């Protein structure tokens, strides 16, 4: 098991401290998986797996860890279909959920193009448009919005997707970018943006739609940011909706890849009727070893506060082993304090990028509310499924990295979860990025306002993976691992005897 890191003395010099640390981290990742991975019972023994075989001299350190994690996810399979739980149709060489990220840099996934300008881009047939803009970012302050077309970048006309991305990367490196924009009114203007640090605003659009005597609230919610951040922007919107006594609500999650689980609870409570107060929202199911309190590996990891300092009780430092992972301790209930009180129907706008906390929000409201799911597709597919992530995790430190392994499955009050292939939309419409959020010309909004005149989609058993090829590319401004992420404050400490 240790040959890849410890050669014979007459073959090569002794390994460095850094190399030894990498090998130890490879071991730690495997042993943590044996203890906390949701499907740990399907993993092999350490001798059979040999984690240190992933050590490759000269290779990027995080790549070694990701290769190991990917190989780990090739063991657990769904019993009924024999398919991998973590098969990723969008990027088959990476796990769908589990990952490891550096604390020194933000994760960039298959859909993510982080930039300090606060905009996200869609490219179709070499035509570049903005698909959303953070209102607090340099782009938002410059008045850019969804649907604006970029016709030149850094003084060069856009002739292809690759030429645009080349100039785009140069602009990020220089912290400055110059666009020529054509907006929805066919007005052409030049926009210069300087990179900046800004507080994210996950509410990219909120407005009131009126149809005859009916008032419909609309909100485009982009990310489940930490609760304090989202609460700052969500609360005023829902207070306004409540003041208007709206009866119907549209929640646009088409590009929302998830985030913090506690924020999903907060938003669900804003939406839910008062009659749900005290009722089950969802429950979390860890593996049997964790539920039984036998994941001994967790004794090696201190429970840290928001300042990364150990937490003590009676002079003793708490560890992740002191958390109660049993099923009864991990039930979340509705706690209705404010928000909407007159809501009768909820429309969710989703896409194949709608993931984790977004799916959780939909799933927990399904047993109690009148819900309709409208799927948007950049390729005008007849069937639209969300991403499919019914699992959650919290981070565990491994060296200078944070490890995120799928740890628990989330089920709603009807014990329904398992949407590994996504939640199927009731209807499908094109994702027309020429229209701003909330526009009555947007196909999804048109459907809500005229749904009775639109024929329902007939679903087939076609697999999402057969429809991945696309002439459209979306690059979202996302800077954190997507998922149902739990924070330390949300973990339940066991009572000590």
What are the key terms here?
24 strands, single chain, 7-stranded antiparallel β-sheet
Q: How large is the share of residues in beta strands? A: 15-25%
Largest sheet: 7 strands, antiparallel
Quickly count the helices: 10
What is the share of helical residues?
10-25%
Please state the overall shape, judged from the principal axes of the Cα atoms: globular
What separation lies between the terminal Cα atoms?
40 Å
Residue windows where pLDDT falls under 50 for at least 5 positions: 7-12, 105-113, 454-470
Structural class: alpha+beta
Number of strands: 24
Query: What would the average pLDDT be, to the nearest integer?
Result: 89
Q: Compute the CA-based radius of gyration.
A: 24 Å
Brief synopsis:
This protein is an alpha+beta fold and 497 residues long. It has 10 helices and 24 strands. Helix 1 packs parallel to helix 3, helix 6 packs parallel to helix 7 and helix 7 packs parallel to helix 9.
Task: Explain what you see.
Strands 2, 3, 4, 5, 6, 7 and 23 form a seven-stranded antiparallel β-sheet that branches. The chain has helices at residues 17-36, 46-49, 61-72, 138-141, 161-174, 227-243, 261-271, 288-291, 357-365, 443-450; strands spanning 99-102, 119-124, 127-133, 149-153, 156-157, 176-182, 188-194, 203-211, 214-221, 248-252, 259-260, 280-286, 312-313, 316-317, 331-333, 345-350, 371-377, 391-393, 396-398, 401-404, 408-412, 427-430, 472-475, 484-485. By secondary structure, it is α+β, with helices and mostly antiparallel strands. The longest helix is centred in the N-terminal third of the chain and has 20 residues, at 17-36. The protein is 21% helix and 23% strand.
